Amino acid sequence: MAVSEALGFVGLGVMGEPMCANLLRKSGKIVHGFDVMEAPLQRLSELGLKPVDNLKRIAAECDVVFLSLPSGKQVEEVCLGAEGLLAEPGRLQTIVDLSTCPASLARNLEKGLKEKGISFIDAPVARMRKAAHDGTLAIMVGGDGKILEAVRPYLSCMGTDIIHCGDIGAGQVVKALNNMIVFMNVHALAEALAIGRANGVDPAMLFEAMSMGSADSFALRNPGMKALVPDEFPEQAFPTDYALKDIRLALGLAEEGGVDARQAKATHELLVRTSEAGYAKNYYPAMIRLIEERDT
């Protein structure tokens, strides 16, 4: 693949907008953007983004297109739909999917797009919204190593750790398992906090003490200290229904591999109850409300 003269970015939501902003600031390339919402397009246009009103124009103007979309359904529609990137011939050479999707979808898309002369790699991102703003994401990549090296300079605008996990779909597998572990850790932290509070221990002191011992973790210092301790679960953070989508991907992989992931199933069940209790849009550590039976 030749060095790209223009880039595209589809999906400018909570993670996509700051990732695109870093691409604009650091890549030195023209970046075209598409989203169904007008507000992020307007904000990013102040950084130099060239907004477009349909996906066909993205494909016509860009060599490499990055996707950051809510689910596999949207990824498939954007790539192969009647109004999608391949609806008309263009200059598009490579699609990089930053979304979190089923590994099977990544494999199917790579095969189908290859037949049309388009390269595809899966590159889901990890770490929190602040890392997206700071350009310090971890990016798990599945696919051809040569394609990764061609787009690595652009991924480096958005992340500090770019890991080649293996063949196509491997990035999605690693991302799903990463998130599964985080959700399970937050489940454990929520139970520990509830037990501590029931026994008269201050939550802030509990987690501070744990951070100095072998229980220390990313989950303790971030969703633990920043959400569970202050008991704040805003809608502007990673919602319960997003967590449900991701842990279901991991459980699907477990089923395919013949693994009885009992602890992950328990966390999934708690997330289901959290969503059904009215916290579907709230930051998923709201699961503690169910553990402490504060869902009414």
Automatic annotation (TrEMBL):
Residue intervals of the 3-hydroxyisobutyrate dehydrogenase-like NAD-binding domain: 169-290
Q: Which Gene3D superfamilies match?
A: N-(1-d-carboxylethyl)-l-norvaline Dehydrogenase, domain 2, NAD(P)-binding Rossmann-like Domain
Q: Does the keyword rRNA processing apply?
A: no
The kind of enzyme this is, by top-level EC class, is oxidoreductase
Q: Which residues form a coiled coil?
A: none
User: What EC number(s) is this enzyme filed under?
Assistant: 1.1.-.-
Q: Which UniProt keywords apply?
A: NAD, Oxidoreductase
Q: Which residues cross the membrane?
A: none
Concerning PANTHER family, the annotation shows: 3-HYDROXYISOBUTYRATE DEHYDROGENASE-LIKE 1, MITOCHONDRIAL-RELATED
Protein's name according to its UniProt entry: NAD(P)-dependent oxidoreductase
**Native source organism of the sequence:** Fodinicurvata halophila
